[in-house]
Structure formats: C-alpha cells, structure tokens
Amino acid sequence: MTSALTAEKKRYTYEDYLKIPDDKRYELINGELLMTPSPIPKHQSVSIELAFRIKHFATTNDLGKVFCAPCDVYFDEENVVQPDILFISKNRLNIIGEKNIQGAPDLAIEIISENSVYRDMVQKKRLYARFGVREYWIVIPEEEEIEIYLLKDNTYQHHKTHGKADTLESPSLKGLTIVLKEIF
Length: 184
What we know:
Layout: H1 14-18, E1 25-29, E2 32-36, H2 41-60, E3 64-68, E4 73-76, E5 79-81, E6 85-89, E7 101-102, E8 107-111, H3 117-131, E9 135-140, E10 145-152, E11 155-163, E12 167-169, E13 177-179
C-alpha cells in the first residue's frame, strides 16, 4: 500500500515577516515569502534618477511624499511589498505609519530586474490593482521603456508605453514630465 505524502506549504503572515533578519530584502505576496536579490547597477541608476525627479516635483508643488525601497507597504497580514518607488498624495499622508505604509500608495513603480519579471508584471500588478494603487509604472531598463497602467474597475488598463525618446507625463501627478533619455 502506498501512501501519498503531501507537503503543506507554510503561509506566512506579517508577524512572521517581521521576524526575518534584515540582511536581505523580502516581500510577502499571498502568504508566500519571496526573497528579492539586490538590484544591479543599471536598475539602481534608473531608480535614483526617477525618484529624484518625482521627489523634486512632489516637494516643489507640495503634493505629498516619495519613498524608495526598501520601504514596506502593508496591505494585509499576507501581503507586504516594497515597490522600488512609491508616491503618497498629501491628502493621504495618514497611511504613513511609524514602521510601514499602511495601504495603497497613489503611485507604485517597479523596475524590472532579471529575477523580478513575473513578480512585477503579474503578481504585483494583480496585487496593486486588488488593493487600489491608482497608477502603476513598470520600468523595463533593457527595453528602455516605461509602461503606465491606470486603475479602472479594480483592474489595470494600459494607458501608454513611453520609450527613451519620449517625455513621460504622469496621468495622476498632473504636470510631472520626465525626459526619458535622461533616465536611461
């Protein structure tokens, strides 16, 4: 007689997540603990250039706060992520907690790395839509493109893809323009 052995996968919670040593980056998506390797230099260069421009625009116009990874965004007990860049509008600053962001940022930006394609383009895209992130950018350094998605009826609609030769205009942050040849 053979017996079927089934390995039960542990579902992690925010409490488990907080116990992890902070020498590596992790995210918690649907109860699954996922390690995030350190980004490569091109990823970091694109990230800092974008963050600098968004931060400057938001500060100059008194629009809200900009944060960069690692910064936890807590959606619920089984979903805690660290977008590469996030923006929280002035009228929603109350979601900024002492230890994390407690709810959906207005804008989340993920910069694709070799190991993050599925996570950023599928898992996080679904998660951000589910929890109400209004605008989502997927930055693809290899293609020198930024895809912009807007939330409509709890799902993302593709708004526009910008290439290196373009000037990106954010639909949500009215007046924010970024010359992409300065980013890539």
